Amino acid sequence: EGLAQGHAEGLAQGHAEGHAEGLAQGHAEGRTEGLRTKAVSIAQKMKSKNYAVEDIIELTGLTAEEIESL
After folding, report:
1. I need a surface site. Which of 9, 21, 47, 49 has the fewest CB within 10 A?
2. CA separation for the pair 34, 55 (Å, rounded)
3. Residues 6 or more apart from 42 whose CB is under 8 A from it?
4. CB–CB of 67/43 below 8 Å?
């Protein structure tokens, strides 16, 4: 009985820790994607107003290739 209980508790703890890590990773990825989406939006507006590519790179952190593809 003790072994079965220990096994069940270990599984429950492992599940909880895995779930927490998955949530944290998902939140971090979501924030990163949100920041990138915002940078692209700003770059598009800057490009439409004929800002220099170098200025867009500096202010958004995007690469020249990313900006040229917009």
Report:
1. 49
2. 21
3. 59, 60
4. yes
